[in-house]
Design goal:
The chain is α+β, with helices and mostly antiparallel strands. It has two helices and five strands; from the N terminus they run αβββαββ. The structure holds guanosine-5'-monophosphate (5GP) and zinc ion.
């Protein structure tokens, strides 16, 4: 999608600080981090949000969680981490290309705001 920020990052048109990449998935540091570790993990396929997922995307989503687990280990998040996926306007989704926030390195409150 030409007008999608994350599709443009995948295409290399906008630079990002990458931490992981394979044929299906890209992970990069969030530009405005909310924790000492704040990585975004995204599918290379443009999927608007969790609400737009199709059954055929199941393998990609499972793969994203495996990448998250691997990155949490590599980035030293031994004490815990949080994976967040804002979906839709009222949940605060600001980029309409599905992404998983991997957050760690501090204590987190519950419930989230
Ligand atoms: P959302 O608000 O949709 O859950 O998350 C979007 C995230 O993308 C935000 O945490 C925001 O800081 C991040 N973001 C927005 N623009 C850019 C960018 O150009 N580069 C990077 N690395 N992150 C971005
Ligand atoms: Zn996109």
């Amino acid at each position: 999608m030409a007008d999608c920020l994350f599709c443009r990052i995948i295409a290399g048109e906008i630079p990002s600080n990458k931490v992981y990449e394979d044929e299906k998935v890209l992970a990069f540091h969030d530009i405005d981090k909310k924790a000492p570790v704040h990585v975004l993990i995204i599918p290379k396929k443009h999927i608007e949000s969790v609400a737009a997922l199709e059954a055929a995307d199941s393998e990609t989503v499972a793969h994203i969680f495996n990448v998250a687990r691997q990155l949490a280990e590599e980035l030293g998040l031994k004490d815990g981490f949080r994976i967040v996926t804002n979906t839709g306007k009222s949940a605060g989704q600001s980029v309409n290309h599905m992404h998983f926030h991997l957050l760690g390195g501090r204590e987190f409150g519950w419930p989230p705001g």
